Amino acid sequence: MKLLSIAIPCYNSEAYMEKCIQSLLPGGDEVEILVIDDGSKDRTAEIADQYQEKYPNIVRSIHQPNLGHGGAVNTGIHNAQGLYFKVVDSDDWVNEESYKEILKTLEDLVKGSKTVDLLISNFVYEKQGAARKKVMQYRHCLPVNQIFTWNEVGHMPKGKYLLMHSMIYRTQLLLECNLTLPEHTFYVDNIFAFDPLPYVQNMYYLDTNFYRYFIGRDDQSVNETVMIRRIDQQLRVNKLMVNSYTSCGSMNKRTRAYMISYLDIITTISSIMLIRSGTKEALDKKKELLEYMGKGLTTIRAGYLILPAWAERPDAWRELAEAAKTAGVKVVTAGKGDELPCGKVSFSVLWPEKNATGKDVNEEAMVMELSFGDFQMLFTGDIGADTEKKLLAAGGLEDVDCLKVGHHGSRYSTTEAFLEKIKPEVAIISCSLTNTYGHPSPETVERLKEAGSQVEYTMKNGAITVETDGKKLKIGRFRKD
Fold first, then answer.
1. Of 455, 433, 434, 435, whose CA–CA distance to 443 is shortest?
2. How far is CA 315 from CA 165, 267, 319, in A?
3. Averaged confidence pLDDT in the chain
4. What pLDDT shows up at residue 194?
5. What is the pTM for the complete model shown?
6. For residue range 66-111, what is the model confidence (pLDDT) as tens digits?
7. 375-392 tens-digit pLDDT
């Protein structure tokens, strides 16, 4: 049995496929190269046959009627005789030195006691005319040179995600999960990089720049003009990924979080292309996509969106309200003094004043107190010291069990006087690890600790959940480390 099967989907690829094949031949007899002629009308089939004749132990030439990129990958999977499976597009190539590292690593993994489902490596954007080449690497997100599980995957920023170019799957896993890409459809590489993930248990990351991803042809599917023209295919893939996610049932929560993040990226791309198209039809499709996402993905359904009743409403306010209405969520505006009952839970609006203009979106942010039994939680939006003084002067503030800290922990909020009044048992700071504002401020954190508060951070532990029976308080953290 071969160690690695490499499928090269080819359609009218005569101009560049040989560079791709030549880069893969150094793998020798451990590798099989499946050159899949997808109904080409040029010399692709002839070139494929020539390589098979010259390298019969390495190259197999497979001919089929045109089924598109997905159909060619499907053919590759079902013809693969290697323990592991890789797709290399016919206009791309691999680095020889890294290739040898990949094969040596796979050989060592096969001899080991643990079955590795996915080998990950770096890829390089070979953008035509670019002076510097961008490398997609994962050394700050994934353990390097060791077998790991989803529980050990670190934070992956939005621009950092696994693509087909960086992935080598265990062949049997692809067969067991019945991966079948749609035919006659572009952008299916996203499905290839997405659908098998719930089945992946053990992974290995090799920090080497293996795959070279060429960008520059005018007819390339990732060209913006081409993407807008083929937006219906992008939308089809987007929806198929939603369907796959919602149908996969229970899975590791880190896997789930990563897949949601990936879907967010793909949906953002779809939305941007639709917006840039600029037609009413495209904007209607964007609305329909968001509705589809809402129905398929939302596991916690929002019944209401509560917004401050500002006289002047900025674009962000209006866009949020419109998005809520599109998703079937009722929009409520409220101001100081309003009480919003919700079953056994009630919300008291403490700020802003009902005549607030909305010109200062921070100091006129909404402040609400949640009450449930003996439990009290205060949400302070982005207010700073000025508004805290006004709330103290107005009276009505009391001890709370939990505080959502104002303005992401800014040094200009959560004053000593404010904390002395509300005495929170737990304080939650919501901020990104990569924010450029320096949040949370060390001074604010110190004030919270001096007030006796247990401080929780989303930047360290991801999503923070608060559970209560109306008496006791329990904090849950997405990340335990």
1. 455
2. 38, 21, 6
3. 92
4. 97
5. 0.65
6. 999 999 999 999 999 999 999 999 999 999 999 999 999 999 999 9
7. 999 999 999 999 999 999
Site of tokens 């049997």? 172
Place of tokens 């949400």: 379
As given in the structure block, the two tokens for residue 276 are: 């840039």
Using the structure block, give the residue that is written with the tokens 């016919």.
90
